[in-house]
Structure formats: structure tokens, C-alpha cells
Design brief:
heterotrimer; A: 178 residues; 4-stranded antiparallel sheet; two-stranded antiparallel ribbon; 4 helices; C: 375 residues; Cytochrome-c3 Hydrogenase, chain B
């Protein structure tokens, strides 16, 4: 290594380091470059097609079980009874969002478009049971059978794990297995 | 020491009744506690600043939850480290494992003794100040080596070995890069060296502007000092992405905090040394602080000194968050093939300069040419 | 997992991983070292095995699509499309032209995102953490674009057998153009910041050299192969989809700072490929036709008996799907061949004689993704 090369090495090192440090200094000094969002306070609006938690609009659901059949991870469980007018009535529509991988295949096959993605993505719980969304209150569905009216479409409030389906009556059809 | 004791005993009669060594011990204790308090506070704030600097460079915000703008983050960090489980690996050499963090911390903290914070704010103005710093900071390497060996972990061992090789080889360029300033002042006492940099020239009285050799010496010292403190781009003993965490991979809780504080303490010491030797220490440009009242002079010089040191520390952080890490063999090559020869050339150059121009620097020569 | 060691020697056996900051996931490497010098290295894989190939035999063709997201999570769109192309080749489905263009757009966009992570993770491995965050910043905008198209930011599940799930949303092409204008200068900034940094160059030049012959003999693919100076890119040499309609170069390593096929060459190939992807994207924006995005595919999709092998150029090299159909709704057998896996086969050979720090450079420059290796 000649002296020329030796000095050139030093020069190259100093020059390239200075170039890099110029860039970091520019970002360091300019506060407008900061891109962090203060999450719990500021939230970005999810895109229109955002695939968040699933939601089933129960009154429109015809219990065709297409969603449960197409789900690759079997996270949707459907139980229903067939009424006198051959109409199916949900007695159970559970989505295990702990298992769901948000692929959106179920939403695509839904014939009545009652199963949709919401833009919700925040859910933390202390037990796995709370991650199962119950769209049909098991008890109320049987009560309201007489009134020929569906249960309320609202998802069960998080934290209040509803009682297990009283297995007094065997459902006539079950979805979910494939 | 003697004068301080005499001063106190004359003011406080109670102390006069005590034997000399008791009073002397008390004075030492108080001074040590004051410096320890300063060092710990500085280290806390430095970690906060480091995180903020990193965040700014990386287009993030950084800590902003604890206290206004996150200023109390370091307290939260400290509390967290204190409360963490103190873990000693089952197969570790327990004695060495426990001893190592203290050695590292003592090595860095002891150097604070000769740091000239102000015109008379210095714990001990040793006449061998520069070499005292060199000597006690070398203690760090023993601690790191013990930590690496005592952990009984292969990564830690590799880190400890790397650290030993690195710190030992970088002692040479660091020492050599300090010599030019010592030659110019003709003294190893830090206060002496700083006093020699004052005068009518303002910032051009600083050693860094004395002649080209001292100018390069400053940068060489700064580079070598980065390596001494194991900071990126020379952080191969820790080498997060290679050795996981190097020598302190097995440490947790407050023992880890000791290593951490030692790193930041080291940073302060090397930056203080750089400021004192080349950037005029506590000298305020164009103001003769010795002419002011003692309180004002000390406050002013303290502020100026800290400003200089913190500026250098910020540069260290800036370097850390920009550059990649050298490889272990490249690190050695850089020391022995680049830094050592260049620092030797500088020492030689400064010596010749002092002989040739009777110790006058370029600014002084220019001024004398201009007829002042 | 054994690695031979001379008895009575001073050599040290070190376990690198599966928990190690820079093994890019859960790769375990058994290192035999003499001090810092590595005298042997054996990669140990399988910590992330999810038996994707077996799952494929249990689910229908369409249901397997989300699983391809999990194959290479950094380039999910590429995996989606490669699988879709493979099945379409098997069943002989003609895909609408617009869908092909959309696939090219998402593939190239995802290639940029993947190379950004490769760039960032590699520089972070080398000790410079800041470029990683710059890379993430740009990738975040790509994720936003993907969220616009398909609603997810990482596992897109966008391609469908016979097309894509949604047409491009309104205003997407303008957003994409904005992004490209923003992104292109950033590549030069990366080069200034780190690529040509003397320390960085020294860390990479002449390190982990894979010769042209070795690269071919060990079956390296993608940027790793091109880094060794072999000009082989499926998009050019075996054009699929509409790739033959675009003008772009295939960057190869040419020993810019050292030997051909060293870590620096592989790194620069990725940096340059980002520029080429930008070129392709700009052309695709100009050329994209109107029309449907989904071919007519029966709801119960049953391709006839047969077998097919299709490979596509992924960010990590060729991703091959070998599908055997016996006429059912799910594949009889599905075999996936990935680029990261072949890169690991040459690991031991290249690693010998390097320092521990170079092993990190080696892993980083191969840009392996563990889910793709373990499948």
C-alpha cells in the first residue's frame, strides 16, 4: 500500500462518513420529518377496503353456511334450525377472531353480503373465550323462535361471555366442518 | 486539600476539635458525593438525550410519556432497572460476575475526579491529571474482561476478549493524541493546560487552532476516544447484532445499569478531556473569567465547559446513529495502521513546531505579523 | 444436529440462534469457531414448520391462497400471484389482461417493499440502525397502498384463481405515481447514507464470495444468483404474465468494490432492482387497460387431472409451485420450492474461514426469510 493509497483511504473514509452524517443531521434537525403517530390519541383512518373484524348482520343472514365452508381455518361456527316455512334460523353464529386470519374469503362468498369486515382492529382480552364473537344470543334465539323474530344483530359485548348454548335441542344442521 | 481543611476548621469551630484526617475524610466524602450526584444525574439525562437524538435522526419522536416531553424517562428507566430481578447464571463464576460491574463503574467514575468543571471547580487538580485519566479508565477493561469470563457464556467471553483487545490497542493512539496538548502547555495538569489556552485570542487561543498538527490531533483523539468508550462504530464488544449483547449479555437489573452508566460516564470523561485539552476547557472566549467574582466566574466557566462537553457528546451520538460497525480485524488495523502512525506524526510535528516557533501558534503568529 | 469437532482442540462450538438478533427469525446456526474464526457452520432449520404443503392437500385450491401469504410474509403478493399463475396454468384459465397488469403492479410494489426490508435489516445487522427505519418509513407507504387495494397491510390474499379479488380503487394509480416520485430519490439517498460508506463497503467487499460456478451448482436463485454475475431473471428469460411488455434491466453483480459475488454485490443488486421495479411500475401505470379483473371460474373449482410446475421471480428468487391434481377440489400434492432454502445449502461452504461478524453479513446478504425455508 503506497502512501497515495493510504491517504486516499483516509480521505474516502472521511468523505463518505461526512456524506452520511449530513443526511442523518438533516433528518435529525428537521422536526417535520417525524412520521410517528401517537397511537392511542391519534388513529389513522383505515382504508375503505380494510379487512378488520368480521360482522354478521343477522337479520339478513340466511344461514347458508357458505362462509363457514370456505373458511380455511374453520373459525366460523354456525348452528341453525329449519323453520316450518323452510327458512333457516340461526341459533348460533360464532366467529373466533383469535383464529381468524382476515383473509376475507368468507365475505366474498356471502350471497346476501350480510357478512362484512368492519374497520375495527382493537381487541385485547385476558382470555381466549372473549375473542369469540357471538352474533346470536343462544338463549334469546330460542325464546324468540315463537315470535318468529331474530335475535338482536348486535355482537355480544366484549367481556360478558354469554352462557353456553343449552343443549336441550339438537340443531338440525351444523356448519363449519369441511 | 490542606487549604480546604484549614478553611473549614477556621469557619466551623466544631471541626477544629476533630483530628485532621477526620476532617479531610469528611471533605473527601462530600466532594465524592457531589460528583457522584452529578455523574448519576448526567448519566440519566444523557440516556434521555441519546434516545431523543436517535429518535430525531430516525424520524421518530422518542420517549414522550413520562413527564413533560418525556424528561423523566430516565427516572422510570432507573426504577425499572432497580426493581428487576437480579439474575446470576447458575454456572457463572459468582465472585467475578458480581465484581465486574463495580470495576467498570469505578473505572469510569474515578476519572471524574480530575475533570475541570470550572475555574476552581475540580475535585483534585492532580499534577498528572491527564495520565491519571488514562490510568483509571484502563481499569474498565479489567471489569469487562471479568464480566465476559465470569458470565460463563460464549458470547460474553467473545465480547470480553474483543473489548480487551480493543481497549488495550486504543490506549496507544489515545495517549499519543493527548500528547500534543501536553507538549504545548508543558504540564499534565488539566487546569494548567486549560489556563494556557486563554488570552486575547479568544477561540483561536484554543489548542485545536494552535497549528495544523493539533487540529488533526483533536480529531484523531476523538476517533480513538470513540473506540475507548466502545461506542459505534467501534462497539464490537457489545455488537448487538453479532454477539447479542457481548460482555453484558447475562447481566440484568442494576448490574446492567452499572455497565450502562459506565458507558455514559466514559463518554463524559473522554469528551471532557477533549474539551479541556483542545477546546479551551472552561475558558470563555474573549472573557477573562479569572477577573470576575469567584461565584460568577465559576458559574460561567461551569456553563461553558458543560456546553462544550455536551456538544461533543451530541456528536458522539450523531456518529453512533449514522455509522455501521467495523469488523474486529478492521478495528485493529485502523488502530495500528492509521491512528497510531498519524498520532506519532502529530506528536513529532507539534514538537518541531514548538521548537521552531517558540511555542507560538498560527493565530499568535498572524497577530504578531499584523503588528499587535 | 451434530457438527464434528476435533477432540482436544481449542475450537469452540457456538449456538447462533434460534434466538439471535440477526438470524432473521428462528434460524439456528451451529458455529465451530477458532477464536473469532469460523471453521464450520451448520444451519439448523425447522423451527417454524407449519406443514403448508400438507395443508394444501386438505383445503381447496381457493382456500390455499391465504396460506401463500404466510409463505414469505415480506412478499405476500408475489407468493399469491405465483400460486394463482400455477393453478391457472394447471387448469388452463385465461386471465383478463387488466388483472395481469394489476398483478404485475402489486408484485413489483411488493418487491420494492421486500427489498426495503432486506436493505434495512442488512444495514441494521451491520450496526447502522438508522437506515432500517428509513426503509420502514418508505415501506409504510407501500403498506398503505396495499391497504387501499385489498384491505390488509401484510397478508394481502389479493390474487384469486382467474384474476384478482378487487379492481384497483379510484385514485390508486395517482397515489402510486406520487409514491414512485417520492421513492425514487430515496434510493440515491440510501446510497449516500450507507451503501458507499467506507466502513460498510469494507465490511462487505470480498466477504462471503459465491463464485458464478458455485452459485449455479448450488442452485442459488434470484438476487443471490445475480449477485454472482449470472444474468438470470425469470421475468426476462422465461417471461410469464405480461412481463415481456416492459423495458427493464437485470442488474448483476460485477465486483464493484471487490470480488464478483461478494456480499456487497448481492446487496447492490437489491438496491438496483428497486430502481428497475420503479421503472416497471411506471410503464404499467401507462399501459394498464380497462376491463374485467376476474375470469369466469366455476364456484366449485376442479381442475382436471395433471401436474404442473410454475416458477415466478420473487424478491427472494424463484418461487416454484409443483401441483399434482387428480381432479379433486384440492391438490393431490403441492410442493413449494423457495429461494431462501437453496441459499442455505451453500451456507457452510461460504461461511468457512470467515469471522463471526462476516457470518452476519452472509445471512443478511442472502436475505433469507425463515417461514419460506420451513414452510
Amino acid at each position: 500500500m503506497g502512501l497515495k493509497q493510504y491517504l486516499k483511504n483516509i480521505w474516502e473514509a472521511v468523505y463518505t462518513i461526512a456524506l452520511g452524517m449530513k443526511i442523518t443531521a438533516r433528518y435529525g434537525i428537521d422536526p417535520s420529518e417525524e412520521i410517528t403517530q401517537q397511537y392511542p390519541e391519534e388513529k389513522r383512518q383505515p382504508a375503505e377496503r380494510f379487512r378488520g373484524f368480521l360482522h354478521n348482520d343477522v337479520p339478513r343472514c340466511i344461514a347458508c353456511t357458505m362462509c363457514a365452508k370456505t373458511c380455511p381455518v374453520d373459525c366460523i361456527e354456525i348452528e341453525f334450525v329449519t323453520g316450518e316455512d323452510k327458512k333457516r334460523k340461526l341459533t348460533r353464529f360464532d366467529i373466533n377472531i383469535g383464529r381468524c386470519m382476515y383473509c376475507g374469503l368468507c365475505v366474498e362468498v356471502c350471497p346476501t353480503k350480510c357478512l362484512t369486515h368492519t374497520d375495527g382492529y382493537e381487541k385485547a382480552s385476558l382470555s381466549r373465550g372473549e375473542l369469540i364473537l357471538h352474533f346470536v344470543e343462544p338463549a334469546s334465539a330460542e325464546e324468540e323462535e315463537a315470535q318468529e323474530k331474530e335475535a338482536e344483530p348486535e355482537p355480544a359485548p366484549a367481556g360478558a361471555a354469554p352462557a353456553e348454548n343449552p343443549s336441550g335441542k339438537e340443531p338440525e344442521g351444523t356448519g363449519g366442518e369441511n | 486539600m490542606d487549604s480546604a481543611v484549614a478553611f473549614l476548621t477556621s469557619k466551623i469551630p466544631f471541626l477544629a476539635s476533630l483530628p485532621f484526617w477526620v476532617v479531610a475524610f469528611l471533605v473527601m466524602l462530600v466532594v465524592a458525593l457531589v460528583i457522584l450526584g452529578f455523574a448519576l444525574t448526567y448519566e440519566g439525562i444523557a440516556t434521555y438525550i441519546e434516545r431523543k437524538v436517535a429518535a430525531d435522526i430516525q424520524v421518530r419522536i422518542g420517549p414522550n410519556r413520562v413527564g413533560p416531553n418525556g424528561w423523566f424517562q430516565f427516572i422510570a428507566d432507573g426504577v425499572k432497572l432497580l426493581m428487576k430481578e437480579d439474575l446470576i447464571p447458575a454456572k457463572a463464576d459468582k465472585f467475578l460476575f458480581v465484581l465486574a460491574p463495580y470495576l467498570v463503574f469505578v473505572g469510569s467514575f474515578a476519572a471524574f475526579v480530575v475533570v475541570p468543571f470550572g475555574i476552581s471547580l475540580i475535585a483534585a487538580d492532580l499534577n498528572i491529571g491527564v495520565y491519571y485519566v488514562m490510568a483509571v479508565t484502563s481499569l474498565v477493561v479489567i471489569g469487562i474482561l471479568l464480566a465476559g469470563w465470569g458470565s460463563n457464556n460464549k458470547w460474553a467471553l467473545l465480547g470480553g476478549m474483543r473489548a480487551a483487545a480493543q481497549i488495550v490497542s486504543y490506549e496507544v493512539p489515545v495517549g499519543m493524541a493527548l500528547l500534543p496538548a501536553v507538549i504545548l502547555a508543558g504540564s499534565l495538569s488539566l487546569q494548567e493546560i486549560i489556563r494556557s489556552q486563554g488570552g486575547y485570542l479568544g477561540i483561536f487561543g484554543w489548542n485545536i487552532f494552535h497549528n495544523p498538527f493539533t487540529f488533526f490531533s483533536f480529531f484523531l483523539y476523538f476517533t480513538a476516544a470513540l473506540a475507548e468508550t466502545n461506542r459505534t462504530p467501534f462497539d464490537i464488544p457489545e455488537a448487538e447484532s453479532e454477539l447479542v449483547a457481548g460482555y453484558h449479555v447475562e447481566y440484568s437489573g442494576i448490574r446492567f445499569a452499572f455497565f450502562f452508566m459506565a458507558e455514559y460516564g466514559d463518554m463524559f470523561v473522554v469528551c471532557a478531556l477533549a474539551a479541556a485539552l483542545y477546546l479551551g476547557g472552561w475558558q470563555v472566549p474573549f472573557v477573562d473569567v479569572s477577573g470576575l467574582s469567584p461565584l460568577l466566574a465559576n458559574l460561567l466557566s461551569l456553563g461553558v465547559f458543560l456546553a462544550k462537553v455536551i456538544a461533543l457528546i451530541l456528536v458522539m451520538m450523531w456518529v453512533r446513529w449514522t455509522l455501521p460497525r467495523l469488523r474486529v480485524d478492521q478495528l485493529m488495523r485502523m488502530s495500528w495502521k492509521y491512528l497510531v502512525p498519524l498520532t506519532f506524526v502529530n506528536v513529532l510535528g507539534v514538537s518541531v513546531w514548538v521548537l521552531a516557533f517558540d511555542g507560538k501558534g498560527i493565530p499568535a503568529l498572524v497577530m504578531s505579523l499584523l503588528g499587535r | 444436529m451434530e457438527i464434528e469437532r476435533l477432540p482436544e482442540s481449542d475450537e469452540l462450538l457456538i449456538n447462533m440462534g434460534p434466538q439471535h438478533p440477526s438470524t432473521h427469525g428462528v434460524l439456528r446456526i451451529l458455529l465451530r469457531t477458532d477464536g473469532e474464526l469460523v471453521t464450520g457452520a451448520k444451519p439448523d432449520i425447522g423451527y417454524l414448520h407449519r406443514s403448508l404443503e400438507k395443508i394444501a392437500e386438505r383445503v381447496t385450491y381457493a382456500q390455499f391462497m391465504p396460506f401463500t401469504d404466510r409463505l414469505d410474509y415480506l412478499a405476500a403478493a408475489n407468493c399469491n400471484c405465483a400460486y394463482a399463475w400455477a393453478v391457472e396454468k394447471l387448469a388452463g384459465i385465461e386471465v383478463p389482461e387488466r388483472a395481469e397488469y394489476i398483478r404485475v403492479i402489486v408484485c413489483e410494489l411488493n418487491r420494492i417493499a421486500s427489498h426495503l426490508i432486506a436493505f434495512g435489516a442488512f444495514t441494521a445487522d451491520m450496526g447502522a440502525f438508522t437506515p432500517f427505519l428509513y426503509g420502514i418509513r418508505e415501506r409504510e407507504r407501500i403498506n398503505d397502498l396495499f391497504e387501499m387495494i385489498c384491505g390488509n397491510r401484510l397478508t394481502y390474499n389479493y390474487a384469486r384463481i382467474g384474476g384478482v379479488s378487487h379492481d384497483l380503487p379510484d385514485g390508486f394509480l395517482d397515489e402510486l405515481k406520487d409514491f414512485l416520485d417520492y421513492f425514487e430519490p430515496k434510493i440515491d439517498e440510501y446510497n449516500q447514507l450507507i451503501s458507499y460508506n467506507k466502513i460498510f463497503v469494507h465490511r462487505l467487499a470480498n466477504v462471503a464470495v459465491v463464485s458464478k460456478e458455485d452459485a449455479i451448482a448450488y442452485g442459488l436463485v434470484g438476487p443471490n444468483l445475480r449477485g454472482s454475475g449470472v444474468k438470470w431473471d425469470l421475468r426476462k428469460d422465461e417471461p410469464y404474465s405480461v412481463y415481456d411488455r416492459f423495458e427493464f434491466d437485470v442488474p448483476v453483480g460485477f465486483g464493484e468494490k471487490g470480488t464478483v459475488g461478494d456480499a456487497f454485490d448481492r446487496y447492490m443488486v437489491r438496491i438496483r432492482e428497486m430502481k428497475e421495479s420503479v421503472k416497471i411500475l411506471r410503464q404499467a401505470i401507462e399501459q394498464i387497460p380497462d376491463g374485467p379483473v376476474m375470469a369466469k371460474v366455476p364456484r366449485v373449482f376442479k381442475p382436471g387431472p395433471g401436474e404442473v410446475y410454475f416458477r415466478a421471480e420473487n424478491p427472494r428468487g424463484e418461487l416454484g409451485f409443483y401441483i399434482v391434481s387428480k381432479g379433486g377440489t384440492s391438490p393431490y400434492r403441492l410442493k413449494i420450492r423457495t429461494g431462501s432454502f437453496t441459499a442455505l445449502t451453500i451456507f457452510d461452504k461460504v461461511a468457512r474461514g470467515h469471522l463471526i461478524a462476516d457470518i452476519i453479513a452472509l445471512i443478511g446478504s442472502f436475505d433469507i426469510v425463515l417461514p419460506e425455508i420451513d414452510r
